[in-house]
Amino acid sequence: MQSQISIRTSGQGLYEFTGEAVEFVSESGVVEGLLTVFVRHTSCSLLVQENADPDVCRDLNEFFARIAPENMSWLRHTMEGPDDMPAHIKSALTQVSLSIPVANGRPLLGTWQGVYLFEHRRAPHQRKIVLHVSG
Amino acid sequence: MQSQISIRTSGQGLYEFTGEAVEFVSESGVVEGLLTVFVRHTSCSLLVQENADPDVCRDLNEFFARIAPENMSWLRHTMEGPDDMPAHIKSALTQVSLSIPVANGRPLLGTWQGVYLFEHRRAPHQRKIVLHVSG
Amino acid sequence: MQSQISIRTSGQGLYEFTGEAVEFVSESGVVEGLLTVFVRHTSCSLLVQENADPDVCRDLNEFFARIAPENMSWLRHTMEGPDDMPAHIKSALTQVSLSIPVANGRPLLGTWQGVYLFEHRRAPHQRKIVLHVSG
Q1: Of the candidates A93, B23, B34, the residue with the CA atom closest to the CA atom of residue C90
Q2: In CATH terms, is domain B2-134 a member of 2.60.120.460?
Q3: Chains that touch B (3 or more CB pairs under 8 A)
Q4: Which residue of B has its CA nearest to C131?
């Protein structure tokens, strides 16, 4: 079973959609199987991260802003704006797909694990994510 | 078929569990299919890496210690210890899930590929990993 | 269904094989399912990235050359050449496996998404990639 969800972003940072993923698996009726999450873009990405303290997400966003800053003078791909090539780099450093086993009709996430879209562009975007479950 | 294994860690570094993954696939009876490995934590992660020279694992651990050091003064999430937020960052830079095709009843790893848990915390931890195979 | 493809590389950089992946899924006859791509090496890796402007691939290669340069004096694993341990590091920072949902007999890639082998060694190599589709 497959479904596509859309997430509206408003700037760089992590956007949690654990609830949508859990609901999708529940509605699929799959009791034991595999959930796959795939993002259809190359300037945002996916992460499983801690959803307890919001400072974890802020620090992650800050780390990636520092490791791939906008002012790298050697960049060639600059025509889509100063935040575009750093966005591709941050995407390469994180995930485009996640695979999460399902048991008892739920993704087997750990206690503190949340599923996030990681937006790397400054401008608002509508991001498409494909959810797939097999069982 | 699913199974959960537990790995006891004693500090930062790579812990190989290729043997457990191969044995799980063998016992499942799946001849051709897909093995998925998922770690249920956000301060350790997964890697497929070379298992020939142990210096590869040491150098990998050292690289991540240098790219996400404990003394980053701008970090906000510090209440769980100086090694906790760097652990989340190292986890984001590596993998939470791995998908490995299975043929002839074995994961199709290359000659030098081993499957590792990458522990990012200093204190000993009991880490839970889910193995899932479909065929 | 599974297939193994081989890609001949001639130095560091990104080599697109989206066409081979699309063709594999088409020939499998799977209409809705999941494509998994797995690379059987630890000194090259996989990426889904933009395939519109070739400068994106060049900038990605340059970024990884800068984040894991060959002259890191603390490296221990140097016996396979100065580009080998940086190759393992770049591999750890990117992907060994990719999971892409399939619909209407095609991988659900976004408009600008291409599937790439990311070669991290300087010398020419023959790289083995496993394609797996279930439906």
Answers
A1: A93
A2: yes
A3: A, C
A4: B101
